[in-house]
Design a protein that fits this description.
Number of domains: 1
Order of helices and strands: EHHEEEEEEH
Structural class: alpha+beta
Distance between the termini: 37 Å
CATH architecture: 2-Layer Sandwich
Strand order of the largest sheet: 1-7-6-5-4-3-2
Number of helices: 3
Shape: globular
Number of strands: 7
Radius of gyration: 16 Å
CATH class: Alpha Beta
CATH superfamily: START domain
Amino acid sequence: MKHQSQARYPAPSEVVLRMFTDKDFHTRKLDAMGLKNYQVLEHALDGKEFRIKIRRKVPMQAPALVKKFVPAESTVVNEERWNLKSRTGSVMVEPQGMPLEVSCVTAMKDQGGECVVSFDWTIKARVPLVGGALEKFVISDMERRAAEETEVAIRLLKDYR
């Protein structure tokens, strides 16, 4: 299933990119969201590209139809990459123990006085019959979490101006 979303930040893309490519931003964001059980597995910033890989425990509240495929608490590994020059990137999400493949292509651009970050997601459930319901649940959960992450990131943005 394909899904598109956007996040808007009240700052130019150079400021948002500076924030996104700071390892401490990612840990501060998770702390502010109340996710204490996480570990930064890898990170690198070489002047051209940024990469960070984080494993975290995420509480899940799945509806009955897909509950057997979604644990109450899931271990998720996210790998986020950004190209500093093109301001494009990708996100790979590995929800461990769930029959899902989740990936995303990202891009940021300036629009007026804001930075708009676009996300083009591909979510694929590897289960027959209820796969579509599982994909819809994942999209709904991602949207809710993305809204919270954006809200927290906007509060942290002042530190990168």
